[in-house]
Amino acid sequence: MPDSKTLPVIFNPLRIADINSPDDLKNLSIPELESIAEQCRKEVINLVSMNGGHFASSLGVVELTVALHHVYNTPQDKIIWDVGHQAYVHKILTGRLNRMHTNRQYGGLAGFPKVSESPHDAFGTGHASTSISAAAGIAAARDLVGGKEKVIAVIGDGSMTGGMAFEAMNHLGDLKSDVLVILNDNQMAISPSTGGLRNHFVNISLNKTYNKLRKLIWQSVSLFNNDLGNTAKNALHKIEDGIKAALTPGAFFEALGLRYFGPIDGHDMEQLVKALKEMHDLPHPKLLHIMTTKGKGFKPAEEDQSKWHAHSGGFDTVTGKTLKKADKTLPPKYQEVFGEALVELARKDIRITAITAAMPTGTSLDLFQNAFPKRFYDVGIAEPHGVTFAAGLAIQGMKPVCAIYSTFLQRAYDQIIHDVAQQKLHVVFAIDRAGLVGEDGPTHHGSFDLSYLQVVPGMVIMAPSDEQELRDMLYTALYNVNGPVAIRYPRGNGTGIPLNREFSALEIGKGRFVREGESIALLCMGTMTGKGLETAEALAQSGINPSVVDMRFLKPLDTNILEEIASRSTHIVVLEENSCIGGLGSAVIDHLNELGLKLPVLKLGLPDAFVTHGHMDDLYRDTGLDTPSLTEKIKRFYKPEGK
Question: What are the tens digits of pLDDT across the range 450-475?
Answer without folding.
Answer: 999 999 999 999 999 999 999 999 99
